[in-house]
Amino acid sequence: MQNGMHTDTERCVRAVQSKDARFDGWFFTAVLTTRIYCRPSCPVVPPKPENMTFYPSAAACQQAGFRACKRCRPDTSPGSPQWNQRADLVARAMRLIGDGIVDREGVPGLAIRLGYSTRQIERQLLAELGAGPLALARAQRAQTARLLIETTPLPMAEIAFAAGFSSIRTFNDTVREVFALSPSELRARLPKGRTGAATPGVLSLRLPFRVPLNPDNLFGHLAATAVPGVEEWRDGAYRRTLRLPYGHGIVGLTPNPDHIACRLTLSDLRDLPVAISRCRRMLDLDADPVAVDDQLRTDPLLAPLVDKAPGRRVPRTVDEAEFAVRAVLGQQVSTAAARTHAARLVTAHGEPVDDPEGGLTHLFPSPEALAALDPESLAMPRTRRTTFTTLVRQLADGTIHLGVESDWEEARARLLSLPGFGPWTVDVIAMRALGDPDAFLPTDLGIRRVAQELGLPSTPAALTARAAAWRPWRAYAVQYLWATDSHPINFLPV
Fold first, then answer.
1. 235 is known as an active-site residue
2. pTM for this entry
3. 262 is known as an active-site residue
4. Across the strands, what pairs with 260?
5. Predicted local distance difference test score (pLDDT) of residue 1
6. Phi, psi values for residue 167, rounded to 5°
7. The one catalytic residue among 99, 286, 436, 444
8. In whole angstroms, what is the distance from residue 15 CA to residue 308 CA?
């Protein structure tokens, strides 16, 4: 699918008439007669084609004076897959807006991080999304407000500030304008007993995704590589601590057939939209699995793997710097040894947190904390110690910045210039931390072994040439190839 799908009226009308949920988040349908906007899969009778107009974002619908449908809840659609599969300015800006940067640092802060002028960013976002950064951030605030209104018993004043509004009046006006209901009316519509967390301070949310989603390698990978104290698998949920802009959090994520159940405990409610955004990104929930799988099926040797277990996602991270450090700790050692190395660092240099359920004890150490440690205390070969200390020093002083807004090629080049960083380490960081959907690991021993078993070329150069047909989804091909192995990363823990 291409950017600007909302301009293909005929295709959009077909998607709406067939109520095709695959297109939720790709575009929004605004109904001229009712002044309401919907997701393509809205269950109501589709309007006449001449009464439909299409927009690329909820923010553009809101700016044009349309209100969110009360039936299909377009504000709860999965996000557009484009922002995680593209590396251009608009995609990087959207990832940053999703990470709450406009609320924390304003449009100037967004511009500084992207290295463009505010005018250039405004112009490009308006051209592609029909809304500027402030309107896009406002739409996100409205969505967060609704979530808090409907899932917590918090007073409205607390919700207003937690969702990022500067005043209660702006909160009231925005909610009324976007949802055609006041905050109190939104809460009153809920079935009796629906509001209020079962445990004080715990938010229970549903994270939507496009089907199919195969949870095995996704949660299997996160659980098998979990660092004690920071992560655990418990009672069917992957749990971990989160370092967030205003404080810290603990999240539990449980796979269900039609959503991911998310239990969040936050030290500061203002971190809610960022925590949700990072968890969605870690689980790759905004992917378009049909597009990915259709492309990979064109290779007759990959097709049986895809058909056997469609909908594999790329397990990612909530903290890019943390993942880079862990990638170095995992160089040329087993998964168990890498966990042991990381656990020692966590105990010695992580920040303690209180987990009401027990089990989790620390935040993963920050680059600043790791840059200050004594290199002699690291139980690893001298060359890897140099790799580790160089990386954490450059992360701490900002020479290397890894974030949702990173330019993938620039980050690759900077990492490759570090001692001890070869193509495998750089590409695993590109794939799982930076989110490049086309990152590929032709030198990975597991990939080469599977390639040979399947009859694919097994030398890195020949395999890379064959994999050109899998682009731009080679990171997903890696997941399908890895999944043929009996390693614990490929299975949901029992």
1. no
2. 0.92
3. no
4. 207, 255
5. 40
6. -150, 160
7. 444
8. 27
Sign of the Cα pseudo-torsion (96, 100, 103, 104, in order) = negative
Query: Please, which residues have CB within 8 angstroms of residue 435's CB and are 6 or more apart in sequence?
Result: 84, 281, 314, 316, 404
Share of the chain above pLDDT 70, in %: 98
Query: What secondary structure letter does DSSP report for 172?
Result: H
Q: Among 38, 42, 72, 279, which one carries the catalytic annotation?
A: 38
Predicted confidence at residue 2, as pLDDT, reads 45
Measured CA distances, 84 to 168, 288, 408 (Å): 33, 10, 12
Residue 308 parent element (H or E): helix 303-308
* Beta strands 36-38 and 28-31, pairing class: antiparallel
β-strands 237-243, 231-234 pairing: antiparallel
- pLDDT tens readout for residues 252-309: 999 999 999 999 999 999 999 999 999 999 999 999 999 999 999 999 999 999 999 9
Note whether 222 and 238 are within 8 A (CB).
yes
Which pLDDT does position 287 carry in this prediction? 94
pLDDT at 198: 54
Q: What is the pLDDT of residues 400-441, one digit of tens each?
A: 999 999 999 999 999 999 999 999 999 999 999 999 999 999
Using the structure block, give the residue that is written with the tokens 């293909």: 8
Give the whole-angstrom CA distance, residue 69 versus residue 40: 11
Count CB-CB contacts under 10 A for residue 408: 16
User: What is d(CA 72, CA 251) in angstroms, rounded to the nearest whole number?
Assistant: 27
239-243 mean pLDDT: 98
Residue 87 identity: A
Q: Tokens at residue 445, please? A: 């021993």
The pair of three-digit structure tokens given for residue 144, joined into one six-digit string: 């967060």
CA nearest neighbour of 220 among 494, 463, 426, 490 = 490
